[in-house]
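for the writeup, i need someone to sanity check this before i put it in the appendix. the sequnce is what the collaborator sent (i think, or maybe the updated version? ugh). structure was predicted straight from it, no edits. if anything looks off just tell me and ill rerun, i have time this weekend
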Amino acid sequence: MNNNDKIIKKLQKNNIKNNMARTLMIGLAIILTCILLTSVVTITLSLNESFEQTTALQVGSKAHAGFKFLTMEEVGKLKDHRLIKSYGVSTVVGLVTNKETEDMQIEVMTMDDQYMEDAFIDLVGAYPNDYHEIVLDTLVLDRLGLNHELNQLISLTVKTAVGEETEDFLLVGYYEGNLFSPASYLLVSKTYKGLHVLEDEYPDYMGTNNLSVNFASKHNLVSKLMKVTLDNDLEHVKAGPNWAYTDVFQMNLEDVLSYFFLLLVLMTSGYLIIYNIYLIAVHKDIKYYGLLKTIGGTSKQIKRLVYGGALRICLISIPLGLLLGYGFGQLLVPTVLGSLNTEVIKVSTSGWIFVFAGVLTSLTVWISCRKPAKIASKVSPIEAIRTSEVTVNKKARRRKRSKVYQIAWHNVFRVKKKALLVILSLSLSLVIFSSVLIEIKDFDSENFVSRMIGSDYLIADSGYFASSHDGENLSESFLEDIERLGLEMHPFKMNMKTVYIEDDIREVLVSSYNDDNHVSYGHNEAKEGRVTLEAYGVDSYFIDKLKPYLLEGNLKESLKADEIILDNHFFYGADQGIMPYEVGDKIDIEGRAFKVVAIVSNVPMYMYNQYFTGFYLQGYISQEHTSDIISLMLEGQNDLINEVMATYPTLTIKSRQDYLDEADEYIRMFRIVGYSLAGLLAIIGILNYINITATNFIIRRREFAMMQSIGMSDNQFRNMFIAEGLYYIIFALCLTLMITLPLSILMTGQLTVSFIVPLLCCTISLCILVILIAFTNYRNVCKESIIERLQTAE
């Protein structure tokens, strides 16, 4: 076996230097492919981390898991478990019961440093040391009408295990309030705690302790919690993983497949150009490889020559592509996340971005080089001497080709594989462009708004509008303030109730659940013969909102005290579960029989509480059976409403215009991301076209000279170049339509043709571009005289 590593490396360097135009083309293709992959991975990981942090804010903690209502003895057992890497401890001392803050949950607590860090508490000032020293968040200060300043006296009424009393406290610290957290905190000193916590008595959980824990990783939290509790014989304690890190918020199978399909499309776009460049290079240098075989080169060494050259280009191109792709991803992340209304917009800095994108790009280059390297390694000296790219069949040889467009057709498809690769490369960008147009056209802003709001204004706790959080109920004082504005008010009420089910229904429900952790609670309930019902109180106003979504039964102007309307959105959607009730059935709700008078489907978002929906059964009953006001719908206009809302910082008001703005932001995001992706793919396709045409003109310059020498005019010569380019575009357009028209049916449910006009405009732009490229190639070919080109061996 020949061992000529130094010679092979030298040949690799020489090939790169002697074919600089080819090298630059390959390098640019690798960079573009890497930019596409890196930007997509950056957006994906940023999206995941931003949603993760947003959910952690809604939960009120970034710890991996937590234990509640523990004794100090239980805390001591749990915190020292080998799986727990860090922990924080807090103690529930009481509640603030001021009249001014009755609509807020303000818990009186003591916390150590780790617990505060997990709870997103970044103190301005100091932690309390003396009895009357406290820390509050800015939301409570705003609600009390106080400035964000230290060392001010605040009068607060606090309910603890020893009673309820009003005292003056000194504010020694404050922190930024979290609108989406379940509660605000009044932090007190250990001295205060010692005087207000009873030993071995825990009225309303006052005096119990909470434990936030972090493991070595955020994966398999449920099993880790079970291990910790079982090892300490504390199965009875209340514990749970942080929802931010559980599988509930991970992509489903459809999302995963879509994501990998996108990566495959991007890798394919890079493969088409890189493969084509190397394939053309091998055919062009076929005599070179044959000569290497003649002087003793082995197939393995020639493969190393091809792969090694690609590796050297990758070592420069991939790092540059990673940096540019990450920068491009950083620009797109705020646009993408802004349209999704996440509370946290974070650009991921994970090293996995560069690892994953680098590996995918390297894999694309390696796959692209396999076939060309194999062809080069198998060439023999004799074959190399007589190798020609032109493939002519007998039937074609007998046919006259006197027309310019016929000659151009023959030139395009003389090597069908290369032509197909260029056509596919150009089509990819046109397909993405068309898909973006179809999605934007299909997106109905008015329908989106009607699904989100059914009144002029919608008011609720800020947590109500955040995914995966239920929020607080609206207070009577707030309703009184709104009532003074003279607007038409419609409070939307909800209470959780228990439905007792019969054996046949129980079997249906149990079989409908899967084994995922996030539905285990509902599964256990069903096995015990009960299911939780989200009972929403409705009157004629809300019943009118439900009428367009009626599936079965009849909807009257009002419901009797023993009637219920069921929503078939059950177990994360009717398609995954089975609606166990029919119109006319009786339902036992906490010992009282309710008759099912109607079933509705696909009701709008404002008609239920998204936090619980999917875990439980949802139904609409008479308002007399419900009490908790979760949202308020207002009809009419009053400019003073914003002044009222300013005094309730934890509440949020939404209008129709707000949701229209969200729809516009979504369309803007889709355009920016979609057109950017289509643009980069178009650049790759155009580079592929430039590469194949420029290379063909170099290889075929003797052929062109012969055609001119027997009478082809300059105009015919130039028009032939233009016709070749237009054939590529026409076939790319036809392939795009063949893919996009059926795709439009899958995306919208009907055949859509609205994208064709913009697509044709884009195609015309490509036609103009290929004409300019044809003129450039024509001038380059004509720089040499016919005599000089005739003297050039192919």
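Confidence is low (pLDDT under 50) at residues 388-401, 515-520, 571-576. The longest helix spans residues 656-699.
thx in advance!!
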